[in-house]
Design brief:
By secondary structure, this protein is of the alpha/beta class. Among the domains are: about 60 residues, Dna Ligase, domain 1 (2-Layer Sandwich); about 100 residues, Nucleotidyltransferase, domain 5. It contains 10 helices and 13 strands. Strand 1 and strand 2 form a beta hairpin. The protein starts with a helix and ends in a 9-residue tail after the last helix. About 40% of the residues are buried.
Length: about 325
C-alpha cells in the first residue's frame, strides 16, 4: 500500500493503528472520540497492582461545529490540556460513519497473503472504491471448537484520505497517535473487564441513536449487532417507548438465538445492560432465559478522580471512549 509519508509515520498503514487486538501500553491511554457535535476524551491508567481497577484520570468534552472538519489540531490541543496526561499515547475512536464492518469467511490462503485477500473480498461490500480504502481484519476464533467449519473474520474498511486527515491533525497537535479504534472493539474492551471466569457475556449498550449488542468470551469478540433506534426521542415522545423497546427486545432475542445456532459451543452466561432504563431491563429479563444485570462503571473502573462518572447518564456519555482507553488492560484479579 503506497502511503504518503505523513500517514506512514503516524498511522503506519492503518493495520498497526486500527489494531483490533488490545495493543498494550505500560501506563495507559488517552482516547478521543469524534461525535457529530462533540469531541469526547478519556484518560485511563493501567492497574498498578494485582486486584486494582483501571483508574480514570480524567474526561473531557469539547463542542464542535459540524460544518467544520471533524478533527482539528486546535481542538486536539484543547482536549489534551483538559486531560493533562502528557505521557499517555493516544487512541482515536472513529465515528460510525467513517468505517464499514463486515463478517466474511476467512480466506484459505497463506498468512502472508491474508491481508490482500481480505482486501479484495471486502471490495464489493464497500460504498467507495477499494483503491481508496485502508482495510484491517480480526479473526473470530472458532476453529478449535468447529474444526470442520470455515472460520469467519471481521473486516473493517475506511477511506484512506479520512485517516490521513486525522493523522495530520494529531501530528500538528504534537500528540502521539498510536491506535485507531472502532465502537465494536471499544465495547469489547469493557466486556472483557466485566466477564467472569470462562463466562460468555452478552452486552447491550444504549447510545443516543444506537443500541450496540456484543457477545464476548475470554476477551474476544464473537458476534455483534448494531440497532439504529432514536433512543433520545423516548424522553420527548413517551408514546414511542413501548414500540422502541419491542424492536430492541426482538433484536436482542434474535441475536441470542443466532449465537446459539451458529456458535453452539458457547453457552451464554448472562446479559449485561449499560445505559438502559430499569424498566427495559425488567422486560429483557422476562424475555430471555439468561440472567440480566445492569452495568455499573464503578464496578470496572476506579472513579475516585472523576466521581461524576458515577452518575449513570454522565457515565454513559463516555462509555465508548472509556472502552477505547482500555486497550491492553485485562482484569487484574
Amino acid at each position: 500500500m503506497n502511503w504518503p509519508t505523513l500517514a506512514r509515520e503516524t498511522i503506519t498503514a492503518f493495520r498497526k493503528r486500527l489494531q483490533l487486538s488490545r495493543l498494550r501500553t505500560p501506563q495507559g491511554w488517552c482516547a478521543i472520540s469524534v461525535g457529530e457535535h462533540h469531541l469526547l476524551g478519556a484518560a485511563v491508567a493501567a492497574p498498578k497492582r494485582k486486584g486494582d481497577l483501571p483508574q480514570v484520570l480524567g474526561v473531557a468534552s469539547l463542542e464542535r461545529d459540524s460544518q467544520e472538519p471533524a478533527l482539528q489540531a486546535a481542538a486536539l490541543t484543547a482536549m489534551a490540556t483538559q486531560l493533562a496526561t502528557p505521557n499517555h499515547p493516544y487512541a482515536l475512536l472513529l465515528p460510525r460513519d467513517d468505517y464499514r464492518v463486515s463478517v466474511l469467511p476467512e480466506p484459505a490462503v497463506p498468512a502472508a497473503e491474508l491481508a490482500q485477500s481480505v482486501r479484495w473480498q471486502l471490495a464489493p461490500v464497500l460504498d467507495f472504491a477499494i483503491e481508496e480504502a485502508v482495510v484491517e481484519h480480526m479473526s473470530i476464533p472458532t476453529a478449535s471448537w468447529q474444526p470442520d467449519k470455515q472460520q469467519d473474520l471481521y473486516a473493517i474498511g475506511a477511506k484512506s484520505a479520512t485517516m490521513e486527515q486525522y493523522a495530520a491533525s494529531f501530528r500538528e497537535a504534537r500528540l502521539r497517535l498510536r491506535a485507531i479504534d472502532i465502537r465494536e472493539t471499544a465495547q469489547r474492551n469493557i466486556a472483557a473487564l466485566a466477564e467472569q471466569p470462562d463466562e460468555v457475556l452478552g452486552m447491550v449498550s444504549f447510545g443516543v441513536r444506537h443500541v450496540q449488542i456484543t457477545f464476548t468470551w475470554h476477551g474476544e469478540l464473537y458476534m455483534d449487532r448494531l440497532i439504529a433506534e432514536p433512543i433520545a426521542s423516548m424522553d420527548d415522545y413517551p408514546d414511542r417507548r413501548a414500540a422502541i423497546y419491542a424492536r430492541i427486545l426482538l433484536q436482542v432475542q434474535r441475536s441470542v438465538d443466532a449465537l446459539h445456532d451458529n456458535l453452539p459451543f458457547m453457552q451464554l452466561g448472562r446479559i449485561l445492560v449499560a445505559g438502559a432504563p430499569p424498566d427495559f431491563c425488567e422486560q429483557l429479563a422476562a424475555s430471555v432465559s439468561e440472567p440480566v444485570d445492569m452495568l455499573s462503571l464503578e464496578s470496572l473502573f476506579d472513579l475516585s478522580l472523576v466521581p461524576k462518572l458515577r452518575d449513570p447518564a454522565f457515565g454513559m456519555r463516555y462509555f465508548a471512549v472509556l472502552g477505547a482507553a482500555l486497550r491492553g488492560m485485562e482484569k487484574s484479579s
